[in-house]
Amino acid sequence: MLDVVTGFVAELRAAGLPVALSESLEAVAAVDLVDIGSRCAFKSALAATLVKRQEHRATFDTVFEIWFATRVGTGLAGELAPGDADRLAVDDDGPDAAALAAIVADAIATGDAELLAALARLAVARSGIDSGRSVGAAYHLNQAWRRLDTDGALSRLLGAPALDEGDGSGALERRLRADDFRANVARLRDAVEAEIRRRLVAERGPASV
Hints:
Blueprint: H1 2-14, H2 21-31, H3 39-50, H4 57-69, H5 97-110, H6 113-127, H7 137-148, H8 150-158, H9 169-204
Helix pairs in contact: 2-3, 5-6, 5-8, 5-9, 6-7, 6-9, 7-9, 8-9
């Protein structure tokens, strides 16, 4: 764990954050007190000890995503959550079109945060970010978003058999569920945008976003 935190601190310093040796030691002690299997808890512990000024938080977040995204299997980054690894592998062809459509529908229906994030990573990985091209984030977002076909998934979910409308509660329930589905689609889009920004920064530097 010491090597992991030390390497991360070196990246923060390279990005311009002033991190003292004493703060590095505080970070090591802090992460020993949290469940490192929890990405949120681990990140919060590091931020609490290493970020001393609010204007440095955005840089910290970017460096954290880049540094730990490559450390699959450490339990810290979770490039894919354990339950999603078999469904959304990014190191091979991954799920076919039909399987992907079912997974997208499942993510929109449940709003599962880990599945939404894993889908975003898969979509961006499949669309690719070419460091030799000068196109911006909007182009990559369009390319990745088309692969997920959220419109099709949403239509299928909204067209599912209706609930009993005998007392009128069924119609209200469907409207509420439709609102939840659309909110989850928005969350998925936000996750795709965040993944694109992370990869652009990794490929081209902070000035690219």
